[in-house]
Write a structure and sequence with these properties.
The complex is a heterodimer of chains A (116) and B (114). By secondary structure, chain A is an all-beta fold. Chain A is built from no helices and 12 strands. Chain A is globular. In chain B, strand 7 and strand 8 form a beta hairpin. The radius of gyration of chain B is 13 Å and the shape is globular. The mean pLDDT of chain B is 94. The chains are: A mainly beta (116), B mainly beta (114). The A-B interface holds A 4, 33, 37, 42-47, 50, 91, 93, 95, 97, 100-109 and B 31, 33, 35, 40-45, 48, 50, 55-56, 58, 88, 90, 92, 94, 96, 101-103, 105-108.
């Protein structure tokens, strides 16, 4: 069974600063996807960034980037130039692709507060 | 283009009752997954429907059942409600024909069992 661990229940960052959210996972699979989802108070889960395990290059989406360490089974999210709209719950998630399977395994989340 | 929609937004039920939650997938999507998110927790996978059949199931009892209709919309049914069933229920849709595996989530239904 796959597990995802987020060890930081809450974090805060000053507006315009950089913050890193941690995530570790456990799996015996070699091919998998990793995701960071954002859930603002509106509750709608929004995909922030994804990483395929076979890709060595770390994914980047504008102000969001990941540090993917496959051997260490670590997948951290860096948010640069933090904005007030980044305030939300952030969930790390894991998926094994194939055969049309879309089951996501989530961590417990990190509550991020951006302080003006 | 409408995204994933869910109804109702909020629901209050009494222990022992039955409840039905509804989900309409994003246009062009054919697969629907349901997740339960307890307060302060990450979402947990309940099951997934494709071609009107349950394709995968998480670790949830048989009190949780579902259905997918020919138009790809889906229902989640929970029988004999327990206090512990109080949670946010999220629906996510995806397409088996898309180039990526991205799942799009709805805003959820907040179920309170008293």
């Amino acid at each position: 069974a796959q597990t995802v661990t987020q060890s930081q229940p809450e974090m805060s960052v000053q507006e315009a600063e950089t913050v890193t959210l941690s995530c570790t996972y456990d799996t015996s699979e070699n091919n998998y996807y990793l995701f960071w989802y954002k859930q603002p108070p509106s509750r709608q889960m929004i995909l922030v960034i994804r990483q395929e395990a076979y890709k060595q290059q770390n994914a980047t989406e504008n102000r969001f980037s990941v540090n993917f360490q496959k051997a260490a089974k670590s997948f951290s999210l860096k948010i640069s130039d933090s904005q007030l709209g980044d305030t939300a719950m952030y969930f790390c998630a894991f998926m094994i692709p194939g055969a049309g399977s879309y089951q996501l395994t989530f961590g417990k989340g990190t509550k991020l507060s951006v302080i003006p | 283009d409408a995204g994933v929609t869910q109804s109702p937004t909020h629901l209050i039920k009494t222990r022992g009752q039955q409840v039905t939650l509804r989900c309409s997938p994003k246009s062009g999507h054919d697969t629907v997954s349901w997740y339960q998110q307890a307060l302060g927790q990450g979402p947990q996978f309940i099951f997934q429907y494709y071609e009107e059949e349950e394709r995968q199931r998480g670790n949830f009892p048989d009190r949780f059942s579902g259905h997918q209709f020919p138009n790809y919309s889906s229902e989640l049914n929970v029988n004999a409600l327990l206090l512990g069933d109080s949670a946010l229920y999220l629906c996510a849709s995806s397409s088996t024909h898309a180039m990526d595996d991205e799942q799009y989530f709805g805003p959820g239904t907040r179920l309170t069992v008293t």
